[in-house]
């Protein structure tokens, strides 16, 4: 048997998995623990038996209505489906720093909400000569880290995992309305200023951007965490006329200008821009709480990507 | 003859223009001033004769290499080509507030760098039921204001009008290199902190966003004012490896994450995000200086769109 350090190379994983699977079929799980050469698997076994990336993904997809989807960005982007999972990390953006920390905590499977490759479709052809891309791929290979996007499925979960994680963090889960999940109605008006303070404190954001009035009162709040297409954002503003539209990442020359003009015309909707990564991190932290009981033998750690910006 | 207030309605414009044109052809400009019913035109005439929107655009296009372009967003978006210009306003974004101020200064032609309709292609089908769009169109009609995009042509001017206006405002025009206009090389290293302070002061920006290190020294600066496609931004960062990449509007999950990863890997490029409108306003202010001598009888006013954001 190879050392623990090297056992997770592709071939070793495959051999080990095949071996465990066949032994299980042959003799049943209760016997395995007495089999001396398999003692390294004891911490996962029998309740917490070792899982491959594919098995973890299958466990997740069982919880998602309509999964698997014919078209989705939620694909395995690095690593292999066969590889044995030594630990899971959840994050919004699998940045180089998150990858380094993943290796440090001994995990080899990053469940990332967003793209590792600087484009939502995770296309890599255009990046092949990019030194940062090359470095990132090499680092992922060195640590044998698999990255799977958990974007479309997590949003498709009932309730939307990103939204519910955020609402819980803000203490707003009681305002969740399954009929219209993105639109919250507060029982009493709250000033934009207080909502800004709440999001900054609970989501750990140093500075946010506002198109609007800090003194304005809000009862109707539309949640558009992460990125949402501007045409859809503008349609939602027109349809629901929220007092406050909370966005992760948005487009200045699209939604931002529409909100600015709307306010000039007399419409009340203010726009609060949190920044992409920090707007969805609570949702990926919540993924730990949600997934851990389903894979009890695998340690799941949330490593936040953090806000890339300094505001000066 | 109709009153000055109403003379610029579509029909009146057309009649007046045709009338002036035919009179000019018949008798020559020098005679016109003595023609009593045309005395209202005296202030434009003969050197500064009244111009239609189309004539102003033609004067501009004469200065642009390769114009007219087969495909460009620089189209007339409201008003008519035939309308007589009472005054010109330049701006980045023709916001409702800019339109109101345009009417106040008695101008009826906005030369705008960016979209009035919240999308770069200026498509309006999707907005037909949007109340803000309807209000904006009604306001433009009420004041009979023409909007023409001056985006692609202004960037295609030699030198790029937005870039040169900004460089002049920053005192950096001496670093302009026609061989590689976007890349500036400073003679001595300057700290990011000092460049941030300079852009904030000279461009009138309250807060900027930085991915990088305020203490880092810069000599190579890449200018990507306004919006630039992320793949092009990332390719430029990879090709030129600037110390500082100055952007107007950018994409968080694309360029921003690439810069963040690059810095983690050891690359030096910092990213300074100014915000879209304020990053190009100096270029539209410069358009006044550039265009005024070409249409000496028409008053040109720069009305800044200003930054839509409050940073909290």
UniProtKB/TrEMBL annotation, chains A, B:
<feature type="binding site">
    <location>
        <position position="280"/>
    </location>
    <ligand>
        <name>a divalent metal cation</name>
    </ligand>
</feature>
<comment type="similarity">
    <text>Belongs to the GTP cyclohydrolase I type 2/NIF3 family.</text>
</comment>
<keyword id="KW-0479">Metal-binding</keyword>
<feature type="binding site">
    <location>
        <position position="113"/>
    </location>
    <ligand>
        <name>a divalent metal cation</name>
    </ligand>
</feature>
<dbReference type="GO" id="GO:0046872">
    <property type="term" value="F:metal ion binding"/>
</dbReference>
<dbReference type="GO" id="GO:0005737">
    <property type="term" value="C:cytoplasm"/>
</dbReference>
<dbReference type="Pfam" id="PF01784">
    <property type="entry name" value="DUF34_NIF3"/>
</dbReference>
<dbReference type="InterPro" id="IPR002678">
    <property type="entry name" value="DUF34/NIF3"/>
</dbReference>
<feature type="binding site">
    <location>
        <position position="276"/>
    </location>
    <ligand>
        <name>a divalent metal cation</name>
    </ligand>
</feature>
<protein>
    <submittedName>
        <fullName>NGG1p interacting factor NIF3</fullName>
    </submittedName>
</protein>
<dbReference type="InterPro" id="IPR036069">
    <property type="entry name" value="DUF34/NIF3_sf"/>
</dbReference>
């Amino acid at each position: 048997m190879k050392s623990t350090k090297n056992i997770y190379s592709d071939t070793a994983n495959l051999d080990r998995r095949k071996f465990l699977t066949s032994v299980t079929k042959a003799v049943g799980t209760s016997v395995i623990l007495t089999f001396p050469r398999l003692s390294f698997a004891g911490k996962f076994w029998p309740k917490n038996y070792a899982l491959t990336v594919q098995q973890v993904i299958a466990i997740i997809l069982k919880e998602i209505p309509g999964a698997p989807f014919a078209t989705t960005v939620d694909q395995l982007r690095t690593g292999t489906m066969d590889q044995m999972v030594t630990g899971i990390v959840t994050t919004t953006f699998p940045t180089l720093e998150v990858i380094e920390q993943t290796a440090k905590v001994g995990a080899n499977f990053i469940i990332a909400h967003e793209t590792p490759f600087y484009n939502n479709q995770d296309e890599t052809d255009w990046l092949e000569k990019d030194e940062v891309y090359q470095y990132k791929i090499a680092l992922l290979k060195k640590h044998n880290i698999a990255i799977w996007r958990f974007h479309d499925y997590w949003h498709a979960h009932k309730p939307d995992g990103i939204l519910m994680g955020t609402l819980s963090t803000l203490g707003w889960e009681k305002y969740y309305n399954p009929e219209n999940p993105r639109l919250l109605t507060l029982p009493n008006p709250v000033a934009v200023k207080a909502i800004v303070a709440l999001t900054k404190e609970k989501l750990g954001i140093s500075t946010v951007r506002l198109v609007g009035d800090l003194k304005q009162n809000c009862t109707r709040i539309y949640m558009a965490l992460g990125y949402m297409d501007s045409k859809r954002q503008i349609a939602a503003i027109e349809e629901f006329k929220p007092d406050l539209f909370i966005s992760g990442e948005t487009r200045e020359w699209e939604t931002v200008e529409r909100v600015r003009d709307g306010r000039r015309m007399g419409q009340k909707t203010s726009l609060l821009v949190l920044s992409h990564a920090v707007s969805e991190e609570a949702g990926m932290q919540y993924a730990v709480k949600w997934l851990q009981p389903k894979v009890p033998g695998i340690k799941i750690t949330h490593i936040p990507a953090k806000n890339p910006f300094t505001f000066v």
